[in-house]
Fold these 2 entries.
Entry 1:
Amino acid sequence: MRFDSPRTILHGAGSRHQLTEILPAKRVLIVTDAWLVQAGVVAPIVESLGAEVCVFDGVQADPTDANVEAGLAALTGFEADGIVAFGGGSSIDCAKAIRFQSGALPLVAVPTTAGTGSEATPVMVITDTAAGVKRMTRDARLMPDVAIVDYELSMSMPKALTAHVGVDTLTHGIEAYVSRKRHALTTGLAHSCIERCVRSLRRAWVDGGDREAREAMALAALEGGLAFGNSSVALVHGMSRPLGALFHIPHGLSNAVLLPEVTRFSYGGAEELYGEIAAVFGVDRSKAAFIEWLEDLNRDLEVPRLRDCCGNDFERFRASISKMAVDALASGSPGNNPVVPTAAEIEEIYLAAW
């Protein structure tokens, strides 16, 4: 079995300050988003680098091929010899795509949210704007050279984002644990990811200043990324990407709203494995108890229903279901699910989640 990971992982409070020591570059492209620049979070990183810096802040939520092209033009024009991805999964995925198209430049990923785990995966998801489809690419060359997981960067996340990326992290742990491609090196990481989420997600949501909970969720996101990056995600992610592409629902939120219904469909295909997760949840091994726990979590964290994310426009949603089901299957992720669905079954799950 193969296991891919960054060459170096730094974690802990203040680890972002080691960026200068870890990145051997004289001209650095920082790939980020406009909100982080406006919030003043990027400026200290620029000041600390001790190099010539170009900030590309043209990354949008769920990055597109147009974002990548613009970032590549910035990199080429600046003649950068190193890249820092600074932000959530969107910025990190965009930076991966830029590096992938430009050659073997060193890439350091510095996540500011505790969710996607993209800092530790050889995977990127970029929206093909012409086709209206999110395309996932997996390639060992997409793995960042260094991941810097400084939980202090996540402490300013608002409650809603904490909830959405937190349930996304839990989804990574669960899907990696039950994936048909799981193996010995991923199972322990997935289990630890789930345990940390159970202990700390609600705490981080209630009190964003809870340093212990924030650190636990940052590590959970890292573990989840390492786990699913080597075992694969499954049906939740397969169904989530079309929702993001067509309805522009942020990735973490679309995973969160789908997780209970997808698990209801999948449970019978891996009852023993789901039962082991149920023990971490502190509930009995029945499907009903498992789903109830997930639904209670979403309710506690004020995660909206799918209908609310789609503007309560059922007619548009219903008209999109067939394409979304086909696109979900085409992504390949549903093939790793404990129960591999048909397109018709995916349509039914979308409707149940509504």
Entry 2:
Amino acid sequence: MSEFEMVQLLSPTGERVHHGDYDVDFNDEEYRGLYRDLVMIRRFDAEATALQRQGELGLWAPLLGQEAAQIGAGRALAPQDMAFPTYREHGVAFCRGVDLVQVLSMFRCVDLGAWNPAEHNMHLYTIVIGDQTLHATGYAMGVAKDGAIGSASGTATMAFLGDGATSEGAVNEALVWAGVFEAPLVFFCQNNQYAISESTDHQTRVPLAGRAPGFGIPGIRVDGNDVLASYAVTKAALDRARMGEGPSFIEAFTYRMGAHTTSDDPTRYREGSEVDAWKAKDPISRYRAFLTNNGLADEDFFDQIDAEAEANAIAARTACLALPDPAPLSLFDNVYANGSPPLERQRDEFAAYLDSFADTEEAAK
């Protein structure tokens, strides 16, 4: 692939570096808060993966390795901004104040999405690859029509996507519309190197950020394992959107250290040596080194965060296992606001199917 500048504020060993266009201005507590975010969401993700392996979740999409990209972007969002996730943005959900048990509930198949998007300014997870970018574009265009941009307190929209989604027609259509109509929208693409089993090299001949200018959208590439750079680049793009200066495309260059989902076996398409090389760039280890080197945190702090993350994960497990199974017919309740004849026919057919088991049970007595 051709060269493309990658914004970085932390070296792989945790040394602070500086960039002419991007920087952060945090106090000590805010620096420590980012570390807490990273550890909390990694421990939760590990617990969710264990729940699926034990048969308690139908599926799980791990974020292992992508914590810095998600926490950096999530913390850059202002309260009035709106986020449109894929199915892996657990770190963003954490930043937006979503109860993580409500993230688990969908994967436990007890609901189709549990949190109120209007309450958290975060849409429900989108499973269909890339469709959330169209939703985000339409929302952002509406924000512009409402006149909610043009100042630092304006409203920006962010669409999260993966590298594989950039090959989808929906994403390219969203880029066309966002560019033409100058939507106040940030496309945040986590390039974790694989669209399931297809490497990025087999998806594009240029860096993903380099494709954005073809749509009239500036593209920025950031080290997605650097939480400070991820925050700084995202904040700058969101500020630009709020001021009415149009969309941006961010490629967060990171790595999926685990499986695409728990139904995937990554050992079939990538070498262990590649995974080991990226583990050496672990985003949490890098950030911990930065805090330590600069006297911002000590071992007592790290131990305290580990204990809090452990307690949070166990509490999430307990609450997840206690989730009640829904009534089967409730599946039809929230499809349409006012129902529809075809849906009612399907509901009646399913009800009759359920009733047939009652007859069998009665006969068995």
